[in-house]
Amino acid sequence: MISNCRRCRLSEGRNRIVHGQGPSGSRVAIIGEAPGAQEDAAGKPFVGRAGKLLDQSLEMHSVRRDRVFVSNIVRCRPPGNRKPKRDEIAACRPFLIKELSSIEPRIVMTLGGVAFTALTGSSRPLREVAGKRFDVELNGIHLTVVPNYHPAAAMRSRAIRRSFEKIIAENLSGKKGR
Ligand code: URA
Fold it and tell me: How much is the pLDDT for 176?
């Protein structure tokens, strides 16, 4: 994967490109929105506070983080952690397609509304779709997408945290890898 991408304006403010991480045989891919400050500094996805919560929740349900593939819809940190824009998402899409087509995960869990919309094209609110399964075709690969809440939202609300854990338990538990 490249380290000097200039396809969109997010390249202007980034320190590191944050590509996905995880074994190529992962059955599960977890896709977030965009790197934050800590990810931008480390060059790795979900290493900050939201990542710690994700790790804890995976561990609680016997899913090892090092056995799942973790990535984001965009690879560079948006300024001030704003949501990535449509053209930025489109510019970054080939990287995500390349990752998902080489891994061919059985389940893709999206974290947050941006990731759900980017992968399914649907703008239905998360409260309606969280935990449901969506069959998606992405450049000839068939994926089962399970939308979940973003861990940052789970940090702010106990009710969301409960739903977040439940969706992990119901969909990822026992699917640690190959
Ligand atoms: N939030 C995300 O969506 N992705 C990360 O990598 C970190 C925080």
Answer: 46
